[in-house]
Amino acid sequence: MDTTPQFWKNVGDHLFAGAEASPPSFATLVFPLVGDAEIISSYLARTAREDHTVRWRGVWLTDHGIAYAQADYPLQAEDDEDRFSSSWGASGVIAWLRDYSDLTGVDVSAATGGRRVTPEGYVRAVFTDYVFKFRDGTSLNVPLPGANPTAREREAIDRLATEIVKRRYAKDAAK
What we know:
Nuclear Transport Factor 2, Chain: A; alpha+beta; 2 domains; three-stranded antiparallel β-sheet
């Protein structure tokens, strides 16, 4: 399946974990799920694993629903010229798209204190961990297990959770 220029325009800012860009082949996992839809919110995590792989996982929201993708890649050296090659082979691929109406519950699994940077300086913040439960019995933990999100990623997680809840329950209210 070939990606489109519109897809790259929409997803461009949503394929980074911190300052690190995901492998191009990871983006091709996302395309069948979101197509040319505008990305409303996202959260991406990169986790180095003990088996010398890197696990890329992400959640993307569109008007169509909640998309999730995960793939493991061989650990590449920082100076490896091929590290952004589209020929990277992925293993452990999981990818799905759920309609907002498939969401059956939202649990808060943890809340921890921290600091958030604002234009006025640091302010106290509560960082919340969420569990989104779906009709088929699957669940999605955000932040993604094993990830150690930065304050900026925590803000993305809060935006993501707010949008999921708003879109899920706005559909119910409209009925």
